Amino acid sequence: MTPRFATDVITFYHPGFWALGSADAVRDWALAHPGAFWERVMDTLVESGVSGIELTFAPGDIASALRAFGSASAFGAELAARGLSVVSAFIADSDAPPWRDGADLPAIVADAERRAAFLAEVGAGLLVTGLPMRTTYGTRPPFFVDASYMSRMADIAHAVGEAVARQGVRLALHTESHSTLWYERDIDLFMALTDPRYVWLCPDSCHIALGGGDPVAVARRHAPRIALAHWKDAVGPIDVHLTIDETVYARQQPYMAELGRGVVDWRGWADAMSRTPGAGTVLIELDEAADPVAALRAGTAVARAALAPAG
User: Fold this and answer.
1) How far apart are CA 147 and CA 155, in angstroms?
2) Would you report the helix, strand and coil content of the chain in percent, each value rounded to 5?
3) Computed from CA positions of residues 207, 213, 218, 220, in that sequence, does the dihedral angle turn out positive or negative?
4) What confidence tens digit (pLDDT) does each residue in 256-292 have?
5) Which of 169, 192, 248, 253 could be 116's S-S partner, Cβ–Cβ 3.0 to 4.6 Å?
6) In angstroms, rounded to a whole number, what is the distance separating the alpha carbons of residues 203 and 181?
């Protein structure tokens, strides 16, 4: 089976791609011109040969697509006219009710149901989210990622997963750096505590490697529950004691790399992915490419070579 290739809309957030001076300028322009933003994103996807997209935080979010096209079905039709489709939507920490203590579970579920309704209408079937971030090492009082904490997260995931499943959408958890679903042990513990009928996994090869883990080993252990994966390279393990605040994502960037320029074993990763329910999609994650066409073509070339039969 030949997979479809996809990417996260963050690929198109680089200021240089828009001839603008900063990420804030890109966001402000795109918020003011959602139609023009999506037209260029879609045209660039076609040029790159990548046909799927994962929605994320603004400006490439669900709200932006609705402002630009009026409805999920109209957005889907615009994509389909170009041979494109939505693969999934990612829930960012800053864009949804917090899971930290699950204090407002009805709001968490309602937010997920709203997103799932959009995905169902546009013909996509995956809602991706992560667990809350850790706190900076040494913070008092300390915050422990223990069995009690993971049990609370599992309860929330079950409620969300069951709610979106009623709309034909699967919930998949992403392995974000410095989050409480980062280390191999975190992933194993969370997956052991959750029901495989309602909670799926979206492993990110880069982030697992940044935490000193083995992305291939994780993928092999949890292959039956991988609904989607983010294909991304890493230069090597990151400082696990980075200050965790609003700047942590920017400080992770120097540790990330385009496919084939880091430490991920792509042949092993591709082999593991071929045995998963998500094998039909290869999502190349780049994070703000100045030249998305060149970067996506290079990434898909690495993925195709890894997926090709040996010999």
Assistant:
1) 12
2) 50, 15, 40
3) positive
4) 988 999 999 999 999 999 999 999 999 999 889 999 9
5) 169
6) 10
